[in-house]
Amino acid sequence: MTPIRDAWIWSALAVGVGLLTAIMDLHTDNLQYLVLFVGVQCTILGYARPTGAWRWGCLVAICIPLVYAFNCVVTLPDVHELGPVARLFLGPLVVFFKATHPVSPVDILGPLPAFVPALAGAYVGAGLSRLARAA
Fold first, then answer.
1. What dihedral angle (degrees, nearest 10) is formed by the CA atoms of 126, 31, 63, 48?
2. 62 CB-side CA count, 13 A
């Protein structure tokens, strides 16, 4: 596999983890599990690909404010308002990405501190990878 293709695959994986984190953030009020999830996932990504560890933390953490901005700009309908065919294909997306509470533009800045555990986890993983290679 070429290095460019490899980087795209890992970046897509990091964005997928970030979207999963954003969905968790939209549907839960428990911040401790969210911070733990972000830290552990970024540690795994940093361990797997230690070069450019900042990239994994940023890709995971930026998804949370982007999903909040999406909810602020786009008004998603209720699942019961969709037709039968649309409910089949779009229903899961609406359920996952629709916020349980109204989102205002001020709420977009709320998840920005998620960069701290994301970057810390990525660099811890990169450090552990370097320690494992040295041993």
1. 20
2. 9
pLDDT, greater one: 86 or 39: 39
Residue 64 — φ and ψ, nearest 5°? -65, -55
The Cα 44–Cα 129 span in angstroms is 10
Residues spanned by the domain of 58: 3-134
pTM of the model: 0.89
Q: At what angle do helices 53-73 and 3-27 cross, to 10 degrees?
A: 50
Residue 122's H or E segment, with its range, is: helix 115-134
CA-based torsion, 65, 70, 73, 77: positive or negative? negative
Give residue-wise pLDDT tens across range 7-38.
899 999 999 999 999 999 999 888 899 999 99
The Cα 37–Cα 33 span in angstroms is: 6
* Count: domains in the chain: 1
